[in-house]
Amino acid sequence: MKYMMFVCTDTEPETDDSLVPDVDVWVTENDKAGRRIEGSELVSPAAATTVRVRGGELLLSDGPFAETKEVIVGYDLLECADLDEAIEVARAHPMAWRGRIELRPFA
């Protein structure tokens, strides 16, 4: 089953960096096991363009639409047997410690 793993910042990260796993190890292990299909870090939300259509008119704005302190900073596309396996993969990602991870199955 495919899961989109949104990698997000958080206002209350783990403060003990000695507990945080290494991202390169996480990527290597999950690539080798075939659980990580692809993934990437994203540039700053300041580089975003928000696209909306209202009343047939195209509306563009710079930056993220929502004002928030928690933002998506990357993603990984996972292939896991089930949600339990996806949770185990996500809990080992450094941003589960420094930020937060959101898992969503594909429809």
From TrEMBL:
Superkingdom of the source species: Bacteria
InterPro entries recorded: Dimeric_a/b-barrel, YCII
Domain YCII-related residues, every copy: 1-105
Family per record: Belongs to the YciI family.
Name of protein: YCII-related domain-containing protein
Originating species: Actinoplanes friuliensis DSM 7358
